[in-house]
Amino acid sequence: MKKPVSLSISSHCYTITMHTNHGLPLLRNHKYFNLMFDCLTIISKKYKLNLLGYVFLPNGIKIVTCGLPQTRLTNFVETLKNLSRQELIRFLEEDGKKDLLNQIKMGSNARKHKVWATNFESTHLKSYNDLEQSLNELHVLPLRNGLVFNPESYKYSSSSYYKKGKHGGLRITDYRQVFNKPEMAVS
After folding, report:
1. How far apart are CA 135 and CA 24, in angstroms?
2. What's the distance, CA 87 to chain centroid?
3. pLDDT string in tens for the chain (187-residue length)
4. What is the pTM of this model?
5. Over the stretch 58-103, which tens digit does the pLDDT of each residue have?
6. Residue 18 to residues 13, 87, 129: CA-CA distances in angstroms?
7. CB atoms near residue 82 (< 10 Å)
8. Using a CB cutoff of 8 Å and minimum separation of 24, what contacts does 143-148 make?
9. Please, what is the average pLDDT of the chain?
10. First to last CA, the chain
11. What is the rounded distance in angstroms from the CA atom of residue 58 to the CA atom of residue 147?
12. What is the DSSP string of the chain?
């Protein structure tokens, strides 16, 4: 059995939130979410980071990650946006979502669309408690958004892994097996 990766809470842990342009529900169904799963898997490997939790919603994604220095956060997010943009546009075109495509069109150029909001949010997680709170908050987002009646039944979240031991669309690193002591904190 492979020994778990040893991380400390000072290992550059962040919650990253990316919204779609204008907060529109561009991530429409399973194929859109699968695309985001694939993109995040590729990028996680490229940046050699540990994904500790995630939730994908129709209007954006939120992830908890460790191993990505603050200086590389913007590069990580821009790479994820660029990797997913063209396919998301193609899916919207295939699905006949002209109304959404018109709302994200850039200027008069019918072929240029802005899928993702320019800015993203990142929160540095400085303690084990910060990490747990962030994961708990992202896991209840589908419930708060009226998508499910219980968080672990939402297929596009790591909640089912943490509640039932079932991996969803993404392989995650279980923070409970990685962090030795809950009292670890960065001052």
Report:
1. 24
2. 17
3. 444 444 565 568 999 999 999 999 999 899 999 999 999 999 999 998 899 999 999 999 999 999 888 889 999 999 999 999 999 999 999 999 999 999 999 877 666 899 999 999 999 998 888 999 999 999 999 999 999 999 989 999 999 899 888 777 788 989 887 776 444 333 2
4. 0.88
5. 999 999 999 888 889 999 999 999 999 999 999 999 999 999 999 9
6. 16, 17, 23
7. 13
8. 145/57, 147/57
9. 87
10. 34
11. 10
12. -PPPPP--TTTT-EEEEEEEGGG-----SHHHHHHHHHHHHHHHHHHT-EEEEEEEETTEEEEEEES--GGGHHHHHHHHHHHHHHHHHHHHHHTT-HHHHHHTB-TT-TT-B--EEEEEEEEE--BHHHHHHHHHHHHHHHHHTTS-SSGGG-TTBSHHHHHHS---SS----HHHH-S-TT-B--
Q: How many CB atoms lie within 10 A of CB 38?
A: 15
Tokens read off for 16: 């990253």
Which tokens go with 41?
């898997």
User: What gap in Å lies between CA 166 and CA 110, rounded to an integer?
Assistant: 42
Residues recorded for the chain: 187
